[in-house]
Amino acid sequence: MSELTPITVAYGDGIGPEIMEATLRIIEAAGARIKPEVIEIGEKVYLSGNTAGIAESAWESLRRTKVFLKAPITTPQGGGFKSLNVTTRKMLGLFANIRPCVSYAPYVDTKHPKMDVVIIRENEEDLYAGIEHQQTPEVVQCLKLITRPGSEKIVRYAFEYARQYGRKKVTCFTKDNIMKQTDGLFHKVFDEIGAEYPDIEQEHWIIDIGAAKMADTPEIFDVIVMPNLYGDVLSDVAAQIAGSVGLAGSANIGAEVAMFEAIHGSAPRRAGQNLANPSGLLLGAVQMLVHIGQGDVAEKVHNAWLKTLEDGVHTYDIFKENVSTEKVGTKEFADAVIARMGQKPTKLNPVDYSQAKEAIKVQLKPVKPVKMETIGVDVFLYCDDRDANKLGKGLEAATAGSNLELTMITNRGVKVYPNGLPETFCTDHWRCRFKNKNGDTPYKDILALQTKITEAGFDIIKTENLCRFDGEDAFSAGQGA
Ligand code: NAD
User: Fold this and answer.
1) 385 and 322 in a common domain
2) pTM given for the model
């Protein structure tokens, strides 16, 4: 017999213990080669005074096994308690969130009976870096950070996932017609990495029309990969329209550790009554088995579960007269899945995980040297006087003799100087672009420029260097510029 893979297991709160017990019983009956190690998380840990909801000793198990099967927990009401999911995601560098959104018509109601979409969401970057500042009385800012290694990791994961799960197409959603630098990088990396996967169809959609299409005709999509914020919103939309929020599992994958769970919560009102549906956690566990290279067991479990569903053996939450044949509790549902082990569904599509023999590993491409030049600076000013021409003339006078020259001023990204339109609404936050005609600019010249601007009485709130990488400008133009 092959070796057992240690996994860290948390029974969680509310219905957690019941659905975890059912899940482990089913996968062990299918021959899962695992050795569970139990850790304590959730309400009890929070209420003992630990604001993270996870005991210090639990990290040791997680770091060692690198695989976490987690039941839902109850976050106590009131302030001071940190989200356990956010803590785990950040501490363990779980960069990918994988959420299969599948319809099970006619057994589960949905307007999209043919939907079978997997949303792969970047999990660490984008606006979620949490870097926010108020800059003027009127303006606040949140930094959107997209990195090349972050984009490479998630995009490669999506293509490898498609191969491992026998998926045919990977779609990328971005808004790079507007965010040419940030979303532009994500799209560029998608095209670069995609070229290494000629066996998989690939396409890019602008997120607005892509999202509309996904909500209207989800069956045309297969795997969709996207940056963090879009993925946050659309993974919920996708699960909802598939009709299977209560049945969906999800995976959070890192370079070292991965966490698997149901997407629903701890349903405290249903706890301890043998009522809860264990399917969400079970499908999370199926992803876990694929991840640890036990695709054979994952396939057996998933197909037996699909057969149970189409045989009409349903827990209360999906039970429907005329469609269901038997209303069962958590334990009996697990028994029914176990009784069907080795069977395949005949009405729903069976799954095939024969390609899943080892965990997906994503290697970063070697870093290519690039030529980086600074050719100017955007100086952001706070100015309560809304007269763009006065500001422009004042800055020109203040910086006369500098080798950096004022080329434009924008307000909320719209060019207002020179030759702005009087109709443009202006706030107290101005971006003043200074460029050096001679190209590469030492930072001391930028500091000297800032000294002149400050000495003339202007309030600088921040600066951004204007860079060129391999001869290409890497900053946005002003609208109307
Ligand atoms: P919930 O998902 O627990 O429940 C929503 C509804 O769905 C309830 O009517 C519930 O009875 C039903 N439901 C959920 N799972 C079910 C299942 N497996 N079988 C049958 N019915 C099920 O959401 P909520 O009520 O908003 O949250 C309850 C608690 O769960 C809160 O403390 C919340 O913080 C927590 N929560 C935890 C996680 C997690 O640990 N990942 C996720 C979401 C919510």
Assistant:
1) no
2) 0.93
Q: Which of 70, 86, 260, 266 to mutate to test the pocket of ligand 1 (most atoms within 8 A of CB)?
A: 266
The atom number, within ligand 1, closest to the CA of 42 reads 40
Based on the domain organization, do 328 and 383 belong to the same domain? no
> Residue with the nearest Cα to atom 36 of ligand 1?
265
Q: Specify whether 268 is located in the same domain as 190.
A: yes
Residue 276 in contact with ligand 1 by CB distance below 6 A? yes
Q: Do 26 and 113 lie in a common domain?
A: yes
For residue 400, the domain's CATH number is: 3.30.70.1570
Per-residue pLDDT of 455-477, as tens digits, reads 999 999 999 999 999 999 999 99
- 148 and 229 part of one domain: yes
Give the confidence band of 145 by pLDDT, cuts at 50, 70, 90: very high
CA atoms of 230 and 204, how far apart (whole Å): 14
Helices 279-291, 16-29: crossing angle, 10 deg rounding = 50
The answer as to whether 344 is a domain residue is no
Ligand 1 and 266: CB distance under 6 A: yes
357 lies in some domain:
no
My answer on whether 421 and 314 are in the same domain is: no
Residue 23 alpha carbon to ligand 1 centre in Å: 17
φ, ψ dihedrals at 170, nearest 5°: -120, 125
Which residue is it, tokens 């209420």? 47
How confident is the model over 177-187, as pLDDT tens digits?
999 999 999 99
In a domain, 309, yes or no: yes
How deeply is 336 buried, as exposed, middle or buried, from its count of CB atoms within 10 A (0-12, 13-18, 19+)? buried
Least confident of 231-235, 345-349, 358-362, 446-450: 358-362
Please indicate, yes or no, whether residues 107 and 192 belong to a single structural domain of this protein: yes
Q: Are 14 and 265 in contact (CB under 8 A)?
A: yes
**pLDDT (tens digit, 9 = 90+) per residue, 112-126?**
999 999 999 999 999
pLDDT tens digits, one per residue of 101-114: 999 999 999 999 99
Atom of ligand 1 nearest to the CA of 16: 18
Residue nearest atom 39 of ligand 1, based on CA coordinates = 72
Which atom from ligand 1 is nearest to the alpha carbon of 262?
Answer: 41
Atom 34 of ligand 1: nearest residue by CA position: 75
Residue 348 lies in a domain: no
Question: 260 lies in which domain range?
Answer: 5-339
Q: Is the peptide bond before 17 cis (omega within 30 degrees of 0)?
A: no
462 DSSP β-pair partners: 380
The verdict on the CB of residue 75 being under 6 Å from ligand 1 is yes
Closest to 381 in 3D by CA, of 368, 389, 391 = 391
- 332 Cα–ligand 1 center, Å: 21
**Cβ pair 415, 444 in contact under 8 A:** no
CB of 74 closer than 6 A to ligand 1?
yes
**Domain identity same for 21 and 101:** yes
The last residue of a domain, from among 324, 339, 354: 339
Instruction: Supply the CATH number for residue 137's domain.
Output: 3.40.718.10
CB-ligand 1 contact for 54 (6 Å cutoff) = no
What is the pLDDT, as a whole number, of residue 83? 83
